[in-house]
């Protein structure tokens, strides 16, 4: 117990250290997150193998034999998991992802959905027909 | 020196405040879900997509969705019943008077009493056909004038040229009342872009290539606006064994689909303009019907912007925010 | 060479040791539930590391082998209640936090808050690595910025709680004189 006798709650240098860590996290976020526009394509992978690449322009429901009972829905605000057989349904609660770098992950199903930038593709909000 | 600095402070108070702050950060990050809500449906005989962002976006989304499906159903009744058989609804009178007003202002463009003519051709139904000349003559003879004040007995209404724009105006009212951040309401050929996107970026609308039906003719960048498109490349009837294309927009003088050298016309009305939705829908159809001959008059108007694409890819436009897909074969005839 | 790991330190009686371990295990289970409420915005059952406080108290009040035992028991609890995947993630995260805490509490005089924050960060990193290995994709690390913020907040909370609880624990259970 001797080493704990004069252990402080917090010191000045600790605040600096924690602030530096938070700043680094913020920097990583700003560098990697892509804010320009919405329509890209999502890569659905299972156990490391790419199962499908879905353009976020093509609305609808998708399911694949490899991902079992999962249903992916592409809509106006991106791609989301609308049905899944996993116990916690956290992948469904993640909601919609649409920006490059965002991901939905379902660990029980070993599935990851990741949005990627389509090279040279214009970011469109809506298509007029 | 640090020890001297800290001795003056009450540790308990500091600890309490910091833990409260940390807890708040944790709780706030939980509720930091995206305020955007989206849904898709099939209304006004087309695929529609609604996205709203703001407080209670889910509630607003369902309210907008039910308004659209209700209106769509009400307007659909016009295809089966004559005007006097229709149930009492302010909708029809309101839409009628607004169209009448637009006809007075811009010249007789849209005649909503053409229900019998539309039904005769049946384009966009399961059984389209080319009617015989006698049938056409009969229907044309009893076609009421567009500016008729009282709805003639036995006439059939067709709001197809203005219904989507009218619906967007109603949705605009809801979004304003609920003070949404932004919304994108797409009814395929008419779109409402409401408010301002997070980050202040303008709305980008892709204009479908009317010559091929795939890809973009251009992209329009706007602030909040109503945008409507009219063209013959989506809904048309091509009888078996012929190359004829009969589009769904009718010419009231001949009773046949309009003969125009435009492939599509897009009208952009700023969201500041009252009833901008029905205006954009009305004008898109009207300018499309008139063809390139009359386009200068429309391009000179300040109240709205036009992007008109002719059948050979020539683009007539006074729109500032247009990015033309020149590699797709589109070129400016008039800028 | 026969190596015997003595879990129970000499300073306290067996019954007191059992009671203390049971208490800490129950605390970690309860905190696990509390954490699950916060994990709505995190995918894959990740936790923000509040339940590490039980392990840290074990390191401070008892000894390191007991803390390791507690870590494993925690992971088993998660395994039984939430499944293999969550259990694996809990194990990786808690082990990482355990290592960091042992290093800082036994070898340095780092403050409570700093240790807790670093332990919580290690916990998150451990979980991300577990998720990365399970899914065989690096895209899980997209959550690093968010997790850093929430882990730091959780770490601050834990550190403050630790500073307050630790003396009280010593008063109630006595010191084991094992921590040097």
How would you sum up this structure, described in words?
The complex is a heterotrimer of chains A (129), B (335) and C (180). Chain A folds into two domains: 31 residues; 76 residues, mini-chromosome maintenance (MCM) complex, domain 2, CATH 2.60.320. Chain A is built from two helices and eight strands. A four-stranded antiparallel beta sheet of chain A has the order 2-1-7-6. In chain A, strands 3-4-5 form a three-stranded antiparallel beta sheet. In chain A, strand 4 and strand 5 form a beta hairpin. Chain B has a single domain, classed as T-fold. Chain B has a nine-stranded mixed beta sheet with strand order 1-2-3-4-7-10-11-12-14. In chain B, strands 5-6-13 form a three-stranded antiparallel beta sheet, with no helix packed on it. The termini of chain B are far apart. Chain C has one domain: Arp2/3 complex 21 kDa subunit ARPC3, CATH 1.10.1760. The longest helix of chain C is centred in the last third of the chain and has 30 residues. Chain C starts with 13 loop residues before the first helix and ends in a 7-residue tail after the last helix.
Quickly list its features.
heterotrimer, B: 335 residues, alpha+beta, T-fold, 3-stranded antiparallel beta sheet, 14 strands, globular, C: 180 residues, mainly alpha, Arp2/3 complex 21 kDa subunit ARPC3, 0% strand
Summarize the helices and strands and which ones pair or pack.
The complex is a heterotrimer of chains A (129), B (335) and C (180).
Chain A: H1 12-32, E1 41-46, E2 49-55, E3 60-62, E4 71-75, E5 78-83, H2 90-93, E6 103-106, E7 111-116, E8 126-128
Antiparallel strand pairs in A: 1-2, 1-7, 3-4, 4-5, 6-7
Chain B: H1 2-7, H2 11-30, E1 36-43, E2 46-53, H3 57-77, H4 90-106, H5 115-121, H6 133-141, H7 163-177, E3 182-186, E4 190-195, E5 203-208, E6 216-222, E7 225-231, E8 236-237, E9 246-247, E10 262-270, H8 276-290, H9 295-299, E11 305-310, E12 314-317, E13 322-324, E14 331-334
Helix pairs in contact in B: 3-7, 7-8
Chain C: H1 14-38, H2 52-61, H3 64-82, H4 84-107, H5 112-135, H6 144-173
């Amino acid at each position: 117990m001797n080493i704990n006798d004069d252990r402080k709650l917090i010191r000045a240098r600790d605040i600096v250290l924690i602030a530096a860590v938070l700043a680094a996290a913020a920097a990583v976020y700003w560098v990697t997150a892509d804010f320009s526009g919405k329509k890209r394509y999502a890569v659905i992978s299972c156990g490391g193998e790419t199962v499908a690449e879905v353009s976020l322009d093509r609305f609808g429901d998708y399911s694949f034999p490899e991902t079992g009972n999962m249903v992916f829905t592409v809509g106006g605000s991106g791609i989301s998991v609308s049905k899944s057989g996993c116990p916690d349904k956290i992948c469904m609660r993640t909601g919609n992802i649409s920006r490059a770098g965002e991901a939905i992950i379902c660990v029980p199903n070993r599935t990851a959905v990741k949005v990627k930038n389509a090279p040279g593709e214009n970011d469109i909000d809506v298509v007029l027909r | 020196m640090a020890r001297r600095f800290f001795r003056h402070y009450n540790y308990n108070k500091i600890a309490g405040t910091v833990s409260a702050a940390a807890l708040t950060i944790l709780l706030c990050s939980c509720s930091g879900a995206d305020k955007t809500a989206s849904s898709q449906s099939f209304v006004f005989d087309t695929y529609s997509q609604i996205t709203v962002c703001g407080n209670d976006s889910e509630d607003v989304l369902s309210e907008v969705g039910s308004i659209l499906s209700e209106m769509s159903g009400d307007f659909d009744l016009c295809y089966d019943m004559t005007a006097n058989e229709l149930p009492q609804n302010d909708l029809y009178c309101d839409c009628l008077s607004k169209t009448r007003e637009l006809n007075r202002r811009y010249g007789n463009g849209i005649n909503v009493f053409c229900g019998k003519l539309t039904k005769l051709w049946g384009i966009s139904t399961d059984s389209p056909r080319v009617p015989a000349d006698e049938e056409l003559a009969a229907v044309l003879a009893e076609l009421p004038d567009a500016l008729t004040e009282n709805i003639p007995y036995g006439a059939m209404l067709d709001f197809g040229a203005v219904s989507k724009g009218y619906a967007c105006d109603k949705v605009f009212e809801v979004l304003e009342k609920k003070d949404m951040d932004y919304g994108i309401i797409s009814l395929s050929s008419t779109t409402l872009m409401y408010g301002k996107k997070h980050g202040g970026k303008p709305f980008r609308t892709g204009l479908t290539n009317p010559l091929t039906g795939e890809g973009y003719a251009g992209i329009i960048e706007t602030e909040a606006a109503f945008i409507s498109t009219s063209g013959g490349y989506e809904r048309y009837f091509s009888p078996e064994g012929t190359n004829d294309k009969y589009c769904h927009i009718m010419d009231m003088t001949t009773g046949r689909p309009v003969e125009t050298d435009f492939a599509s016309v897009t009208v952009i009305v700023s969201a500041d303009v009252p009833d901008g939705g029905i205006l954009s829908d009305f004008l898109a159809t009207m300018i499309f019907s008139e063809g390139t001959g009359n386009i200068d008059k429309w391009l000179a108007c300040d109240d709205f912007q036009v992007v008109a694409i002719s059948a050979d890819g020539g683009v007539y436009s006074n729109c500032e925010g247009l990015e033309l897909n020149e590699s797709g074969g589109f070129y400016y005839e008039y800028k | 060479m026969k190596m015997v790991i003595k879990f129970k330190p000499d300073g306290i009686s067996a019954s007191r040791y059992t009671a203390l371990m049971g208490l800490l295990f129950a605390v970690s289970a309860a905190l696990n539930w509390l954490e699950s409420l916060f994990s709505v915005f995190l995918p894959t059952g990740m936790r923000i590391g509040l339940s590490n406080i039980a392990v840290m108290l074990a390191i401070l009040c008892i000894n390191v082998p007991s803390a390791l035992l507690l870590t494993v028991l925690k992971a088993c609890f998660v395994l039984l209640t939430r499944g293999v995947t969550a259990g694996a993630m809990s194990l990786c995260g808690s082990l990482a936090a355990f290592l960091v805490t042992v290093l800082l509490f036994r070898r340095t005089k780092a403050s409570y808050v700093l240790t807790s924050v670093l332990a919580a960060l290690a916990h998150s990193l451990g979980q991300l690595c577990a998720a990365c290995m399970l899914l065989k994709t690096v895209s899980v690390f997209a959550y690093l910025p968010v997790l850093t913020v929430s882990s730091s907040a959780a770490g601050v909370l834990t550190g403050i709680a630790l500073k307050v609880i630790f003396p009280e624990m010593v008063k109630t259970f006595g010191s084991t004189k094992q921590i040097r």
